[in-house]
Design brief:
Helix content is 70%, strand content 9%. By secondary structure, it is mostly helical. A three-stranded antiparallel beta sheet has the order 1-3-2. The longest helix has 24 residues, at 89-112.
C-alpha cells in the first residue's frame, strides 16, 4: 500500500485533470480502456459483463462515446438483435493519452528514487512479474 500511495500521488492528479479536460466520466474512460485492449468487437452484453455494469448503464455510456466519435456500434451480422461496439481511432488516441499521463507519473515517481531505491524496487518487482502474466 505504501508503494501504491507513492505512485498514485504522482499520477492521479495529472490523470484526473486530463480525464476532466477530455470531458469523460470514469466509466467512459474504463469503457475506452477495455475496448482498446480487445482484439474483437464486443456485444453490449459482453461489454457490460467486463465492466461490471448493468446493460442499461453500459448502453448509456456507449451512447455518450458514440456521440463523440470514440466508439462505433452496429448490428451483429448473424443476429440483428445483438449490437456490437468497437473503439475508433479517436477513441484509441484518447485511451492512449490517458495511459501516457499515467506512465509519465510513473516515470516521475521512478526519477524521484535514489539509484539504490530503484535497484531495490526493480529486484522486488522482478520476483513477482511471472505471477502477474497470463498463462
Amino acid at each position: 500500500m505504501r508503494l501504491w500511495g507513492c505512485v498514485a500521488r504522482g499520477t492521479e492528479s495529472a490523470v484526473f485533470e486530463l480525464i476532466e479536460r477530455l470531458e469523460l466520466t470514469l466509466t467512459q474512460m474504463k469503457t475506452l480502456q477495455t475496448l482498446a485492449h480487445c482484439e474483437e468487437e464486443l456485444s453490449l452484453k459482453a461489454l457490460s459483463e467486463r465492466l461490471g455494469l448493468s446493460l442499461p448503464a453500459t448502453s448509456r455510456t456507449v451512447d455518450g462515446l458514440l456521440r463523440r466519435g470514440l466508439l462505433e456500434r452496429h448490428e451483429d451480422e448473424r443476429d440483428r438483435r445483438v449490437k456490437r461496439v468497437r473503439i475508433t481511432d479517436d477513441g484509441r488516441d484518447t485511451a492512449r493519452r490517458v495511459l501516457d499521463a499515467r506512465l509519465a507519473g510513473l516515470e516521475d515517481f521512478a526519477a524521484s528514487l535514489s539509484p539504490e531505491q530503484r535497484s531495490a524496487l526493480h529486484a522486488v518487482l522482478a520476483t513477482i512479474e511471472p505471477a502477474t502474466q497470463a498463462p
